[in-house]
Design goal:
Layout (H helix, E strand, L loop, with lengths): L7 E8 L3 H12 L3 E3 L2 H5 L3 E8 L2 E8 L1 H6 L2 H9 L2 E8 L3 H9 L7 E10 L10 E4 L12 E9 L1 H4 L2 E8 L32 E11 L4 H12 L4 E3 L2 E6 L5 E6 L6 E9 L8 E4 L2 E6 L6
Helix pairs in contact: 5-7
């Protein structure tokens, strides 16, 4: 069964005590600069963030504000329990209306944790001036009109998917790879302008795999929830029910928690041509490993 080319691991989100420190370490380790800080997240008062571009994928770091610590939010409690850690896996889907419904009925059928839609006039790379947004409603199709850029993100509870899970659909151009310059709202709408000059840094061309540690549920069962939720030709590997395949050799693997930590505990990165900078690193409570891309460069 063919996997839809749009079905990709597009972003990993980390949670950290010190945003600038972790962002600086990640940028140096992966030879990739910060390309976006979401002003709307900062305006909310509880969180600040950075986005680092790794080829056609994005690495986000989120940090609670003093206000969030005073209120004791979900993010501050997670940091108190785990320290700096992997926080969320984000998969791009071909049709958010279909995938949001199928994801919402998996496991406990808790439905949507949160979701938003965004639309603005322009094209990929033209910025976010005049963006309109609102709360996403389950099963709603992404608006796609000429001379506009749109996106929708929907999150689901970690108890059903091993980690906070998010699906994304963006338009136009999300399925065009490599050197993708289509819309991708979480990282803003200007990062596209640097792709031709520097498709990727000297360390990695993007995500190869994510490892998600499950505390209570059978990893194979959690894997199957993702498979059933994502659809679009997604399936677990024939010889390994704890690993699912996405487009272009990407995988998601699910393991039992060994130390009480759950969620994103490991990320494999495609090695950039000629890079021998490291084989394995641990940053922000996550193990980062360079692996060779099996297809033609």
């Amino acid at each position: 069964m063919a996997v839809d080319n749009a079905l990709r691991l597009r972003q990993i989100c980390l949670l950290a005590y010190d945003l600038e420190w972790i962002s600086g370490v990640l940028s140096a380790a992966f030879d990739a600069p910060v390309v976006f800080r979401d002003p709307r997240m900062a305006a909310g008062g509880n969180l600040t963030n950075t986005h680092i571009r790794l080829g056609d994928s994005f690495l986000e770091t989120v940090c609670p504000s003093d206000k969030a610590w005073a209120k004791s939010t979900t993010q501050t409690r997670l940091l108190e329990r785990n320290g700096d850690c992997g926080y969320m896996a984000i998969v791009q889907v071909p049709d958010v209306a279909v995938a949001s419904q199928s994801m919402s009925i998996q496991g406990s059928a808790a439905g949507i944790v949160s979701g938003d839609w965004n639309v603005c006039q322009g094209y990929p790379g033209s910025g976010l001036a005049g963006v309109e947004s609102g709360r996403y409603e389950l099963g709603t199709s992404l608006p796609k009109a000429p001379d506009t850029v749109s996106g929708a993100n929907v999150q689901f509870h970690p108890r059903d998917f091993g980690t906070l899970a998010e699906i994304q659909e963006n338009w136009p151009g999300q399925a065009e790879f490599p050197r993708n310059k289509g819309a991708y709202y979480p990282a803003g709408n200007e990062w596209q302008n640097g792709v031709d000059a520097r498709p990727h840094g000297g360390v990695t061309t993007g995500f190869a795999a994510v490892e998600i540690a499950c505390k209570d549920d059978d990893p194979a069962e959690v894997c199957q929830r993702w498979v059933d939720g994502l659809g679009a030709g997604c399936e677990s590997l024939p010889d390994d029910p704890t690993t699912l395949r996405l487009a272009d050799f990407q995988t998601m693997r699910f393991v039992a928690s060994q130390d009480g930590r759950t969620g994103v505990t490991g990320v494999d990165l495609w090695r950039a041509p000629g890079c021998n900078k490291f084989e394995l690193l641990e940053i922000c409570g996550v193990r980062w490993r360079l692996v060779d891309y099996p297809g033609a460069c």
